[in-house]
Design goal:
Blueprint: E1 19-20, E2 27-28, H1 33-36, E3 37-42, H2 47-59, E4 64-68, H3 79-85, H4 89-93, E5 96-98, H5 101-104, E6 110-114, E7 125-126, H6 128-138, E8 144-148, H7 157-162, E9 165-167, H8 180-197, H9 229-245, H10 257-266, H11 272-288
Parallel strand pairs: 3-4, 3-8, 4-5, 6-8, 6-9, 7-9
Antiparallel strand pairs: 1-2
Length: 295
């Protein structure tokens, strides 16, 4: 039994294959948000859970599976994983394996971390149904990622802070431990309903999703170039260097300053130009302070 925790621009899309409809009597082509959404498993321990996640994706019409440093390096070839995939061998075989979460989020405009426990820092958590409404808006701008943690420990705080938004599956408090494959199934199902309910992913109105996490109603319109995960991470490094140069941040005693700034920026849905502005400010601070290597 595992926690649904887990917390990656450019990853090659997994092979787009047709997936069976719920009735099993027809095939629907993957399109729109279905091909722009990647599911990221961080350091999965058990091959069977990876296979079950592949199956969960295919049943809901998704195909992009990313594995971050799996315990079994060639897990997509593991007999247990293949058995648990139960026909979703194509999704499993096409899984993209990367060494870090940063690599997994390369090119993603927005990411959602799944967690089973309360976090002091990071974006405020929402229920899956609430979170996927935000995903519908964000997928209009480009790739998005749903991030799940290790079966035993879930996502680290650093992994959660790297994501744009946070969600928690409201399970039975007396027994809230979900299997990793089950957690993936819950989110894939909710996302499928949201995508199909909106017709074209990204068309969610602010009226129908006013309380969604990660972005306030009236956020960037479709077509506005949002910053990618790796752009934002470079901004944080640049900003941190500038704050250290100003003696505003003591690296020996940071007091969660950067964690709080991450939470602040995560609520804003940063556009590419906004990231450039922050980096421009940081660059000039470093120039005035005679520092180098600010990028």
């Amino acid at each position: 039994m595992v926690h649904p925790d887990s917390h990656v621009s450019s990853i090659h899309p997994a092979a787009a294959s047709a997936s069976a409809s719920p009735a099993g009597d027809a095939h629907e082509p993957l399109r729109g948000g279905f091909t722009s959404t990647r599911f990221v498993l961080v350091e999965p321990s058990h091959p069977g859970n990876v296979g079950a996640a592949a199956r969960a994706l295919k049943t809901m019409g998704f195909s992009r599976l990313v594995l971050v440093a799996p315990r079994v390096p060639q897990v997509h070839c593991d007999p247990e994983a293949i058995a648990m995939a139960s026909g979703a061998d194509d999704v499993l075989a096409a899984a993209h394996i990367v060494p870090t979460l940063a690599d997994a989020l390369v090119g993603a405009q927005w990411s959602l971390a799944l967690t089973a426990r309360t976090r002091e820092y990071g974006p405020p958590p929402g229920a899956p149904r609430q979170a996927v409404q935000d995903a519908c808006r964000q997928v209009a701008h480009g790739d998005i990622a749903l991030v799940f943690g290790n079966e035993r420990t879930g996502l680290s705080n650093d992994d959660v802070e790297r994501c744009s938004a946070l969600a928690h599956i409201p399970a039975n408090p007396a027994y809230s431990s979900l299997n990793l494959g089950q957690a993936v199934q819950v989110l894939a199902y909710e996302l499928r309903l949201a995508y199909l309910g909106e017709g074209e992913p990204g068309a969610a109105s602010s009226a129908s999703s006013g309380a969604a996490i990660g972005e306030a109603p009236g956020g960037p319109a479709p077509g506005t170039p949002l910053a990618t995960s790796d752009d934002i991470e470079r901004m944080y490094v640049h900003l941190e260097n500038a704050l250290i140069a100003l003696d505003f941040l003591d690296p020996a005693n940071p007091k969660k300053l950067m964690s709080r700034l991450r939470r602040l920026f995560a609520r804003s849905g940063l556009e590419r130009e906004e990231v450039n502005i922050v980096r421009g400010i940081a660059k000039h601070i470093l120039m005035l302070k005679g520092k180098e290597g600010g990028k």
